[in-house]
Amino acid sequence: MTTLWILLALLALLLCRIPVAFALGGIGLSLLYVKGFSLAMVPLTLYGSMDNFVLLSVPLFLLMSNILLKGGVGKDLFTAVQSWVGHWPGGLGIATIISCAIFSAISGSSLATAATIGTVAISEMTARGYSRPFVLGLVAAGGTLGILIPPSIPMIVYGVITEESIVSLFLAGIGPGLLLAACFIIYCFLYGKFSSSYQPVAKATPAERGTATLKTIPTICIAGIVIGGIYAGWFTPTESAGIGFSLSLLLVTAMRRMSWGMLYVAVQESMVTTVTLFLIVAGAKLFGKAITLYRIPQEISLLITSNISEPAMFVFLICMVLLLMGFFLESMSMLLIMMPVIYPSLGGLGIDPIWFAVIFVIMIECALITPPVGLNLFVIQAVSQAPLGEVIRGVWPFILMLAGSIILLWFIPDLALYIPFKM
Question: What's residue 301's pLDDT?
Answer without folding.
Answer: 67
